Amino acid sequence: MTAELVRGQNHTLPQTRLEIRVSAGSPVVAGATLGDERGTVRGAEWIAHPASHRVPGLEVSRQAAADHRLAVDLDALPDAVHRVTVLLALPMGAGRPGRFGAVAAPFVAVTGLDGTEIATFTLTGLDTESAVSALELYRRQGVWKVRAVGQGYAAGLAELLADQGVAEAAELAASIQEAVASGLARSVTPPPRTPDGERVGHPAGPAVSGGNGRPPAPAQAPEPLDDPAASHAEAPGGPINYAHPRRQTSAPPPPPPTAPPAAPGQPAQPVAGDATGWSMDERLYNQIWGMFEDLARAVAAYRSAVDFAESRMDQELDRTLSDPRSRIGGAGDRAREEARAKHDELTGRAREALERDLAQLAAESAVVEPALPAAYAGWDNPVWHGYRVPMEIPMALRIGDLHLPEGIGLRIPLLVRLPLERGIWVDSGRTASEAAASSTGDQLRRLAMETAVALAARLLAVYPADEFSVHVIDPAGSAAGPLSPLVASGVLAGPPAAGAEGVSSVLAHLTRRVDLVQMAIRAGAADALPPDLDTGEQLLIVNDFPHGFDDRAVTQLRYLADEGPSVGVHLLMVADREDASAYGPVLDPLWRSLLRITPVADDHLADPWVGHAWTYEPLRAPQGSRVLEKVLALVAAARRAGYR
Hints:
five-stranded parallel sheet, 11 helices, 21 strands
């Protein structure tokens, strides 16, 4: 039976391998400190946080997120540790809540590895605090217990750490926040949470687990329309609304009956659309995100098991080598063989569990991929051969694939919500990836622009013909080749802008549009907008930034990146960050506000659950295929028909 704790209450822990799950209404930083008998943290090596996410016996997430799972092995803690304090903090930054009183009360649950709740605690009563000691696990007379703490700190993470005796707490808190800011910039944004908070599993048979008996991870579905984050651009008196049109306020219906029950002892047969949602597209969207999370957690469990096996083997070998008696009669050799055998047994079991999970996810992917609508499908999917210009905006768009080295053949579609909630940066610079290292600078720049053009084509293809426009800034005219599909089809709002005058003209046009729509929304007078103003979604492709940009143009670009998405103006930049280094830190907020992708395979993206480094691969049309040109031709024809 779950113990629902209140502040100050404690409960005995029945086991030592645990998970601590955190749910919050907005992204929070989750960390933990190790304390001695007096509760003192002896140094930075006793703190797990996004910049140093693992200490002996404890692992936390590498970035801020609305949901966290902290892995705890109390038996693996150093002998001097008597207390583990779980801390939460709000990430710093413009536009982020500065106090817990402005967000939903965080909920913390201590569970077994099978997901069974042992104790829960809701952190109510917080107001001006921006950091809080949520709960602590402590050892008393050889028994581990959990206590609900809920102690908040108005001065934030620095005050919390100082209260636990951490030297140079302010500097450490600043480094943690810096790591969090960097993590938010590279993290894939998770989908909004569903009202019921659960991913619907298969009708029978074992569920996909994390390799340790963990049940399927919860899926996420559209947030309600009345959520401020969802309806930030809704005008009270007019038709402008850049929030997703299908967001609902009530719980979605369950999926329809799917596959028949599996035979006893056999895995369930996967079914496309096996998730909650109002439509098949929404169910597929939620299913893909569920697969993404399942794979992240399955690999995390495998890596954790391997690390545990290696750590235990090292400890046993250290004890053996430190005992002089092990040098007599071959005892040392036998001890080493036994330690290696235990290690191999543990890692073998972990690999078997991972292979089982990978096989089930691969089977699910095999039935989901052919069922995807065009917006979710790769360019090689036959669905594009029957493409027609849609009448409404889809829920999301596929912008690439993700995979991990443990499951190289299993690719998860990377879906981003529509309308876009953040801009995209296609990095044309050299990276540490093998694919980038084998390409020249000119090749990377061309591939980056081709990636941007393919993304723009997908956006044009999934929007109704009169609801999406694309503008291009190509200051030196260097992208004429990659831009030819957009130019030749006639789908651009105007010819690519070149030179300083062209840059200034396009930026002024889009800045004016953002200003006018924002004023109309604030005044509730959307019907008073000028008749020549296009209120449809706008995409600005910027090639070879910062070439052709002066200080004023850079300021306008930052303004569009910050203010544009809420009123339907989106940024797609193609740039090498090193080339913009002359502007110094003034552009750091710009880079962090954009989702960075690469024109070649690169392992720079992090998932929002455990922070794995995922290899991203852009979508490519099959060699020799004309699918992109055919789709753009249909979009152009639909536009011409609509203008008659």
